[in-house]
Amino acid sequence: GKAGENDATSRTAYVKLSTRDSLTRSISKRADSVIWGLSKTPITTLIIASIAVVGAVANSVRSRRWQFGTMRATGLTRGALIRAILVEAILIALVASATSFLFGFLAAQGALKLGASMFGTSNPPLILPLKELAFGFALTLTLCLTAALCPAIQAGRAEPLELLRSGRSLD
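and the corresponding structure tokens:
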């Protein structure tokens, strides 16, 4: 019997009384921190997409060596071929950035609506982290250009016949 009594007396009921205003402030503060965390979704998405884009750019250049050889054989200069490859990499970076931003923006909008419905808060403003977005855009552009630079220079230096032969080989 005494062990049961000690256990019963060592447990204390705990009730915290709060005013409605303090509870609303507490919920709003927590909702704001969740929303701020979710607003970083665009930069995270952009970084992940950048990594995928690097592979796409590098593979695109490598797989089209025969086409580059044909263009060079029909009179395209080395410099023009290099510029064409780099412009393609820039276009891929722009599309990847726009797609990532759109996905992140829509995800943040959904999170804001979810937070408003769950916590009963008014629609808070969506604050875009411009510095982080600019960093993500610059990272994507840099990665795409870096991924395309070496293959572009190699394609530009190669003779048209070499490009035609390597483009049709089974490597």
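(Above: one complete record from the training split.) The two ends are 83 Å apart (CA to CA).
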